Automatic annotation (TrEMBL):
Broad class of where this protein is predominantly found: membrane
Keyword Metal-binding: yes
Pfam annotation, one family: Beta-prop_Vps41
Functional note: Plays a role in vesicle-mediated protein trafficking to lysosomal compartments including the endocytic membrane transport pathways.
Origin superkingdom: Eukaryota
CDD domains reported in the protein's UniProt record: RING-H2_Vps41 (cd16690)
Organism for this UniProt entry: Gadus morhua (Atlantic cod)
Membrane topology summary: Peripheral membrane protein
Keywords: Cytoplasmic vesicle, Endosome, Golgi apparatus, Lysosome, Metal-binding, Protein transport, Transport, Zinc, Zinc-finger
Name of protein: Vacuolar protein sorting-associated protein 41 homolog
Gene name per UniProt: vps41
Span list, region Disordered: 1-31
Length: 856
């Protein structure tokens, strides 16, 4: 709309107050361009007096009586020589096909832009304003109004003649008219009126507030926000007037509509123009300030201001404010400025005699420009990413690069490196450039963790350069990169060589050795890696062996593995017996019996039979290193030589183990004797006797305990369920003092009573169950038995029922459900009173007996 695209990108400071822009951190809502091209040439020779905006073009009136039709870039498309004096108003209908023009010398012309037919009239007084009906192009609405000393309505009648009507007069010069649908609003020296052309009624009169201002110097500004809301600005006062329908019950002689002022407030400066912006308001202010710097006290004209305000009921809230540097602003008065806007577009035209400035809402590109100017790069990048489809002048990657440059300049290298991942994306050339830049500033470490390492990769030399940098300055960081980076990113041999050179200076450095082992692993030199891991006793040694099946390499390193971690080593060896045999392990551990014991113990726990050939050796190992597990081993092993075990246990005076072995070898009396004599534990002696369940052992135990009161107490407390306690009681000597004798005797009697009660309870349960089952059997046998054609005689195997049911017949059915013809059973003369089934009785007496009975 203004100049070329690069000029459009100029800062709004060209038109706005520089000092205010620098102080404000708030983003402006509008951007400004100067309407140039043909307009520039026109205003060099002439001056703008008025302008009207249409969606398709602009109509500009000048002080020299000319009207120019312009495109939206300011190029002249048509020119009309109307008068030799100032054009006061140009009006267009909604279609843009008809134009109305009035001038200071009283000329009024209304014609079609394409037909030039219309109304041409000269009045004897200046005509300040003309307004066409919005639908003037339609035949039913050939109407327009003019305003000078009177408000005249012109209508074309059916004879194609213009009929004139005076709508209002007598209140001074009419300075502004705005026509919306059927409502005409105009302003004169007294106030603002609204006329409803459909009902031919005037519906309101809004008086102006400050009557001290000259109407010709501070004219009224009018604009329609919508079809029912008129905005009035006059002097420093703004009123928003809502046109409403009156309740039919209140009509009487009143107009059908009325006006309600919904908002009224004062402003700081004089109003030169108004325009709606959604629910906000764009206001053009004429500013006069006192020239304090000058010696004489006078007022000077400051830059006009374009503000966006939010109207409230009795005040307003300022949203944005811009001071405009229009040409010759020091020579202009309030009446010299006008504000026009395009319906349906957020375009606002500030017209002054020597300049026309276009204000429009800032788009996403402008928003990004402002963020970049304020060095808010992160917000600019985010805005560009969100609106990448809508931005035209910016590139996401370029903004990202500017952000990275800004972070580097600030010294925030970590954030800059992190942003590279997002900004540089798949552009390998940019990646390499950034890496070299970070190298130049000594910050390779910062960018190392963000380098591409997936399908897209840089040249190996880039990764090697970073690894060498870390190897010189940071061993831990070097080790981290080796672990995180795939081995394919760099030349492994070159890095191994570099690590080797570094180890010559520090041959015992653990981190370097561990990293070298990892590099050997990447290079599939597992034996070298294993050697280092074992030397360092590194926890990953077992994972390395499993992962790469290095069992053949560790056959001679079993002791080292066991020394490092016995549990893990033994588990690994036992899990892989097919790769390293038990015999091989035992052979390797022959000089380390403590390790051999750990291995054989776990082997025995897994399978009692696998290491049976080593059980004899294990007896000594358990006795030496793990006595608590010796007895469980002796109990579970079936391949252990008892004599050898007994010999070892007796040598070491292991009483419990010796007792177990003696009992297992059948020498229970000797075992019991050891418990009583060496352990002196009556409870263990009683448990042993219970376990063996031998009357002779009980006799030995009683004989040994008879002169030992504590033993007698223990026996009395536990013997009741195994041996008749009378045998023990009769053998107690008179006068012997036995601790807790009374309690022991009470316990014996209680145990006896408990046994009696248990027996009686069992007897009752048995009798009740027997009776219940007998009753159930009786009920079952008493039930009727169904006899039909499907049943057969168990003797002759014929159908049990005769074919002729009218003939008498006899059938015998037993409780076992076997059926016989009566004549098929043995006769009562042979076997008197037969009351049993031949089939079932034969089963009881043996095979063939039933047949023999039948023959008899």
């Amino acid at each position: 709309m203004a100049e070329v695209e690069d000029q459009e990108r100029k800062s709004s400071e060209e038109f706005t107050d520089d000092s205010e822009e620098e102080e404000s951190e708030e983003e402006p809502k509008l951007k400004y361009e100067r309407l140039s091209n043909g307009v520039t040439e026109i205003l060099q020779k002439d001056a703008a007096s008025c302008m009207t905006v249409h969606d398709k073009f602009l109509a500009l009136g000048t002080h020299f009586g000319k009207v120019f039709l312009l495109d939206v870039q300011g190029n002249v498309t048509q020119k009309f020589e109307i008068s030799s004096v100032k054009i006061n108003q140009v009006s267009l209908d909604e279609s843009g096909e008809n134009v109305g023009i009035c001038s200071e010398d009283g000329k009024v012309q209304v014609f079609g832009l394409y037909t030039r037919e219309g109304f041409h009239e000269n009045f004897d007084c200046p005509i300040k304003v003309v307004a066409l009906h919005p639908q003037f192009s339609k035949s039913n609405y050939k109407q327009f109004v003019t305003g000078g000393s009177k408000l005249l309505l012109y209508e074309r009648n059916w004879l194609n003649r213009w009929k004139t009507s005076v709508l209002h007069e007598g209140e001074g010069t009419i300075s502004n008219i705005q026509w919306r649908t059927n409502l005409i609003a105009w302003a004169n020296n007294v106030g603002v009126k609204i006329y409803d052309i459909s009902t031919k009624q005037r519906i309101t009169n809004v008086l102006r507030d400050d009557v001290s201002l000259r109407p010709d110097m501070y004219p009224c500004s009018l604009c329609w926000k919508d079809n029912q809301t008129l905005i009035v600005g006059w002097g420093k006062s703004i009123k928003m007037c809502a046109v409403k329908e009156r309740n039919p019950t209140e009509l009487r002689d009143l107009p059908s509509r009325y006006v309600e002022i919904v908002s009224a407030f004062e402003t700081e400066f004089f109003i030169s123009g108004l325009a709606p912006l959604a629910d906000q308001l764009v206001t053009l202010y004429f500013v006069k300030e006192n020239a304090k710097q000058l010696e004489e006290e006078e007022e000077f004209r400051a830059r006009p201001r374009l503000d966006i305000i939010q109207p409230l009921a009795e005040s307003c809230e300022e949203i944005s404010s811009d001071a405009l540097s229009v040409r010759n602003f020091t020579d202009n008065e309030c009446r010299d400025y006008r504000l026009e806007h395009a319906e349906g577009e957020s375009l606002f035209y500030i017209i002054s005699p020597k300049d026309i400035v276009v204000a429009k809402e800032r788009d996403q590109d402008d928003h990004i420009d402002w963020l970049l100017d304020k060095k808010k790069y992160e917000e600019a990048l985010m805005a560009a990413e969100i609106s990448f489809k809508n931005i035209k002048r910016h590139d996401v990657q370029k903004i990202g690069m500017a952000y990275i440059n800004h972070l580097v300049e600030k010294g925030d290298y970590d954030t800059a490196a992190r942003k590279c991942q997002k900004v540089l994306g798949k552009n390998m050339e940019l990646w390499e450039n950034e890496v070299y830049r970070f190298k130049t500033i000594g910050q390779l470490k910062a960018i190392s963790q963000y380098l591409p390492r997936g399908d897209l990769r840089l040249r190996p030399a880039i990764y090697e350069m970073i690894l060498h940098e870390f190897l010189k300055t940071d061993y831990e960081g070097f080790a981290t990169l080796i672990r995180e980076w795939p081995g394919e990113l760099y030349n492994n041999m070159a890095v191994v060589q570099a690590v080797g050179d570094q180890l010559k200076k520090d041959p015992t450095h653990r981190t370097l050795l561990t990293t070298l082992a990892e590099l050997y692993t990447y290079d599939q030199r597992y034996d070298r890696a294993l050697e280092i891991y074992l030397r360092l006793r590194h926890k990953d040694v077992y994972q390395l062996i499993h992962k790469h099946n290095l069992f053949a390499s560790i056959e001679d390193k079993i002791v080292l593995l066991m020394d490092f971690d016995k549990e893990k080593a033994v588990d690994m060896l036992l899990d892989n017996e097919d790769k390293i045999s038990t015999d091989r392990v035992v052979e390797e551990l022959r000089d380390r019996p403590e390790l051999l014991h750990v291995y054989l113990h776990k082997l025995f726990k897994r399978d009692h039979h696998k290491g049976q050939r080593y059980h004899e050796r294990q007896i000594g190992l358990y006795a030496e290193y793990d006595r608590p597990n010796l007895l469980p081993f002796l109990r579970d092993s079936t391949h252990c030589p008892l004599e050898k075990a007994l010999e070892i246990c007796q040598e070491r005076n292991f009483v419990e183990e010796t007792v177990f072995l003696l009992s297992r070898m059948g020498n229970c009396r000797r075992a019991l004797q050891m418990i009583m004599e060496e352990l002196g534990d009556v409870d263990k002696a009683i448990d042993f006797a219970k376990e063996q369940d031998d009357s002779e052992l009980w006799e030995d135990l009683i004989s040994y305990s008879i002169d030992k009161p504590p033993f007698i107490t223990g026996l009395l407390n536990n013997i009741g369920t195994h041996v008749d306690p009378i045998l023990l009681i009769h053998r107690i000597k008179e006068g012997m003092e036995i601790p807790n004798l009374r309690d022991s005797l009470v316990k014996i009697l209680q145990d006896y009573n408990l046994q009696i009660l248990l027996r009686e309870g069992c007897k009752k349960i048995l009798v009740a169950d027997s009776l219940s089952l007998l009753q159930k059997m009786h009920r079952t046998q008493m039930r009727g038995v169904r006899v039909d054609d499907e049943n057969i005689c168990e003797a002759c195997h014929g159908t049990i029922l005769p074919s002729d049911m009218a003939q008498p017949f006899s059938v015998v059915v037993f409780n076992c459900r076997h059926m016989f013809h009566k004549e098929c059973l043995p006769s009562s003369g042979t076997i008197p009173a037969v009351q049993f089934c031949n089939i079932c009785s034969a089963k009881k007496r043996g095979p063939g007996s039933g047949i023999l009975d039948m023959k008899k």
